[in-house]
Amino acid sequence: MSDAADNAAKEAELHFAAALKVRKPVLPFLGFCHYCIEPLGPTSHFCDADCRYDYERLAINGKLGSGAKSLK
User: Fold this and answer.
1) Alpha carbons 67 and 72: distance in angstroms, whole number
2) Phi and psi for 28 in degrees, rounded to 5?
């Protein structure tokens, strides 16, 4: 028979698994801006907030093709 701590651990595990299923995929670090292909440092995805906003807008609308630069 399980006690309250076991039940809480099981419930926490279920919440964690559900959260992992709905999270957004993480963009890989490529060394250049995902929107305008500008060279970047190793820890950035976008060169500025405008590129990030435009990329996210295209992603939400399903208009990202093989390269975002061709859509710009």
Assistant:
1) 10
2) -75, 155
Alpha-carbon span 69 to 62, nearest angstrom: 15
Distance of CA 52 to the CA centre of its chain: 12
Asked if 44 and 32 count as a contact pair (C-beta separation under 8 A), the reply is no
Phi, psi for residue 8 in degrees, rounded to 5: -65, -40
DSSP-derived 3-state class of residue 32: strand
Query: Can you tell me the distance from the alpha carbon of 72 to that of 60, in angstroms, rounded to the nearest whole number?
Result: 16
Q: From residue 2, give the alpha-carbon distance in Å to each of 9, 13, 17.
A: 11, 15, 21
Average pLDDT over every residue of 58-67: 76
The whole-model pTM stands at 0.55
DSSP 39: B
